[in-house]
Amino acid sequence: MSDQPNANRRKFLRQASAAVAAIPVISLAGMSTAKADNPKAEDGHRHDYVNNAADAAGHEDYSEGEKCKNCAFWGGGDAEWGQCFHADFQGVQVNASGWCDEYVGA
Predict the structure, then answer these.
(1) Per-residue pLDDT of the chain in tens (106 residues, 90 and over written 9)
(2) What are the sequence ranges of the domains in the chain?
(3) 15, 41, 68, 71: which has the fewest C-beta neighbours closer than 10 Å?
(4) 43 vs 4, 18, 40, 56, CA distance in Å?
């Protein structure tokens, strides 16, 4: 028997594994440049959004400790700004210490 079919199969599996492993790396590289282009949400953006949750203390829906960084819509980011997965906040970054009336506990 020849080893040629097994060698071809191994070569194909190595190349396919490398291609699949590269997908997340390529996705992350694209996200970092896109994130830098997104403007930062300003107070009053939508849903009574504020960049500092302490400014929402008088809002009827606000509860102590609620911040964007611990909301179910939080998509991550750096220590100060990140992505929100809520439809009304697409295309802007929100402050990790911010708050809006769409807050959902994670």
Answers:
(1) 556 667 787 777 777 776 666 666 555 555 544 445 689 989 888 899 999 999 998 899 999 999 999 999 999 999 899 999 999 999 999 999 999 999 998 7
(2) 1-37, 39-106
(3) 15
(4) 66, 45, 10, 10
